[in-house]
Amino acid sequence: MKIDISTTNPLKHTTPALVIGCLEDIKDEMFTKCNAALDGCLERLIASKEFRGKANSTHLIHTLGKLPSERLLLVGLGKKVDLNDERLRQAAGKAVQVLRGARIATFATALHLAGSTETAIDAVTSGTLLGSYTFDQYKTKDKDELFNFEGMTLLLAKDTNTKAVQLRINSTEIICQGVRLARDLVSHPGNVVTPGYLADTAKELAGKHGLDCRVYEQAEMETLGMNALVGVGKGAAEPPRLIVLEYHGADAKGRPVVLVGKGLTFDSGGISIKPGAGMEEMKTDMAGGAAVLGTMAAAARLKLPVNLIGIIPSAENMPDGKAFKPGDVLTSMSGTTIEITNTDAEGRLILCDALHFALKYKPTVLIDLATLTGACVVALGHEASGLMGNNQRLVDALKGAGERSGERLWPLPLWDEYGEVMKSDIADLKNAGSRDGGSITAGWFLKQFVGKTPWAHLDIAGTAWGGKARPYCPKGASGVGVRLLIEFLQNRR
Q: Is the entire prediction scored with pTM above 0.90?
């Protein structure tokens, strides 16, 4: 979608549709002027309770020539006290859903004028771009019926610094393109996105955005002692890979931030095979890796002043004569031995080798993202990702970035007592304990491989994929993690 800006008065702007925000408890200047132009129509809608301004409610009106815009789309913003950037993002996403339903491809918006912060334009732009996302690549029927947006015009006050606004829009577009990349990767089927496909995507991004890329093949990983990662992938026809991307945006001697993303391109559960119902969604088990790729691309294009390393351990977890099995003992890259009690607890195995590998970069902070446990979905549902770590300052910074970006995180403890169930009788650790506190015990397991490096673990099992549409996230892949991490990196001190 092309985004233009204009300082034309919204009531004088010619467009197929004009979007305005309406508060539940205050009638602002935009509402009052539109109401007057439409002979009191908006007041009558409120009086009849057809539209009251409640958050994410909408009402599309034909102006019948009384305004230069052919239609007026009212979007509820709730009460003034609750109005923030996330409310504006949601309102913008809700608006494009309505416009799509009406097949209005070009429109103008004054939605951001209801906000009082300088980031309101960013919020409306990102909500619009993310809310307009679709994934139709595999649909072959009635392609001429598929709808695509053409353009949006942001209507600004006359005294606005349009150059500064354009720069903000450009940055927001870059971040949203990183999210779209992550959503696309998660949406593709598992017979397309394989470890090799992720590796090729990383190479393509490196060539396009000036990143360094190194892909470790199975033989190299075996030489490095990555037996946990290799063990998970041994049952698949497609060999595992370790993908490493490097972005150098700061002083060459500056220690990097390292991101590690789980890249299980399909998870059958292995020998401990999953139930058949819903297994098709296990193509999404590489959402952490997708988020890292999207973040690396966005960081490079934004020219963030940071050294950033992205590491993606990637494999397929399949049952086969060569597959690892319950009762096996694997020696990880760190030398820690791991008894396999459940081959469906494979994510922590590929991550433990990747996290230990990451320590060679001497990271200032280390963050991993993974669709790691169903237990996190039970604990937090689909409203927030789980957050665990060994450094309170890092945990607080990530939680704050989550609040600002709308990709919320909720902390869970990592007390030593949680590790009791992970002790093995014949090895250093087990890869799975009891069902109780399952997301925490998985995080505790990962903690054993990061040493004293400030580290945080994001369990995105409940937020990476949605079974229903949300205001600026259609049903399916969310691309969670990209906006969060860019927000964290932009505000890092």
A: yes
